[in-house]
Amino acid sequence: MATFNRAHFIETTLLSIQNQTYANFECLIIDDGSTDNTENVIAPFLADKRFQYFKRSAKHQKGLCGCRNYGLSIATGNYIQFFDDDDYIHPQNLELTTTAIELKATDFVHSNKQAFTTHIPDIKNEVLQFKQFITKEQLFEVLTGTIGLASCTVLWKKACFEHFQFQEDLHYAEEWELYSKILASGKIGVWISNILYYNRKHAQSNTGEYYNQNPIRKESHAMAIEKVARFLHQEQLLTEPIKRNFVQQALSFKEVRLFKKMLPLLANNSIEKWTWQLFYLFLPVQLKLYKLKRKFIQ
Fold first, then answer.
1. Is residue 164 located within the same domain as residue 234?
2. 218 with 161: CB under 8 angstroms?
3. What is the Cα–Cα distance from 175 to 113, expressed in whole angstroms?
4. Are 108 and 187 in contact (CB under 8 A)?
5. Less Cβ crowding at N or C end of the chain, within 10 Å?
6. Does 188 share its domain with 247?
7. What integer pLDDT is reported at residue 250 of this predicted model?
């Protein structure tokens, strides 16, 4: 768990981890330089030897990614799950996810989440429910969010991070960038239907700042798309549907010229280059016509 100035939220999060029905865990709290009383709030939890508190290593950049990479470097467990410092975890989270990953012998297990603002939703006892496997064949669904591998909804085998880590120059969409690469590398997961994570919605979260047009978050998202596009191009996994989706996303990042940066990855020759440029040029019109058509049908 990376944390920064979340003294007003983190106690609730840590209590939900402490109350897990699966007890054999280590909770590594990595502080990114908090200036509030976060350390004082955390202190009582350190009497429980499963909780450990660290300051981010100078070897890692400031930010969520640097903290998580530092945590990965010192973690000793067989499995890894990332937690945010402002959310709430179902008491059976670790119990059900470790059971699922061992029963299905997969590299990761993905569960569902539910958003809240102030009041934590009613927690019910869960019975493990399997939905489907997640393989490289579902890469498009993961990239487009149909299968939403959110930052904290996945339990991973630690081996998944032997060749992949968070890109520390990213400050948004960092988990989308990393998780997409891990899946594209051939790792196999299983999706369970259980809601095991509750994410708090507030304006100071990374997601809240992104939707409030924070320029750092917006630029990071564009960078993440470009990084994934380059990786998939290298692995020869940049299919036509994925290309079209990336071009559509590029419309939102004209200020950083994302389409221009990705064009060499999309086209193998001058004809394809002009084809994609025309597609990009007329895409806004196509999208408006599509919206009008849907409105007319309704």
1. no
2. no
3. 15
4. yes
5. C
6. no
7. 93
**96 and 197 share a domain?**
yes
CA–chain centroid gap for 243, Å, is: 21
Whether the pLDDT of residue 297 is over 90: the answer is no
Count Cβ neighbours within 10 Å for each residue of 244-278 and write b for 16 or more, e otherwise: eebbbbbeebeebebbebbbebbbeeeeeeeebbe
Q: Are residues 191 and 212 in the same domain?
A: no
> Residue 256 pLDDT more than 90?
no
pLDDT digits (tens, 9 = 90+) for 42-68: 999 999 999 999 999 999 999 999 999
Same domain, 271 and 254: yes
> Do residues 192 and 271 share a domain?
no
Of the candidates 115, 118, 95, the one whose C-alpha atom is nearest the C-alpha of residue 197 is 115
The number of domains in the chain is 2
Encoded tokens for 234: 């290298």
pLDDT at residue 132, as a whole number: 97
Mean pLDDT on 186-210:
87
Q: If we measure between CA atoms, which residue out of 28, 81, 75 comes closest to residue 53?
A: 28
51 and 176 both lie in a single domain? yes
pLDDT at 236: 96
* Structural domain containing residue 222: 207-297
Residue 184: strand, helix, or coil: helix
Question: Strand 189-200 to strand 130-134: parallel, antiparallel, or no bridges (unpaired)?
Answer: antiparallel
Query: CA torsion sign, 64 to 92 to 186 to 244?
Result: negative
C-alpha 199/C-alpha 204 separation (Å) is 13
pTM: 0.91
Residue 211 has pLDDT above 90, yes or no: no
Using the 3D structure, point to which of 181, 202, 223 is the last residue of a domain: 202
Do β-strands 88-89 and 51-55 pair in parallel, antiparallel, or remain unpaired?
A: unpaired
Give the whole-angstrom CA distance, residue 296 versus residue 298: 5
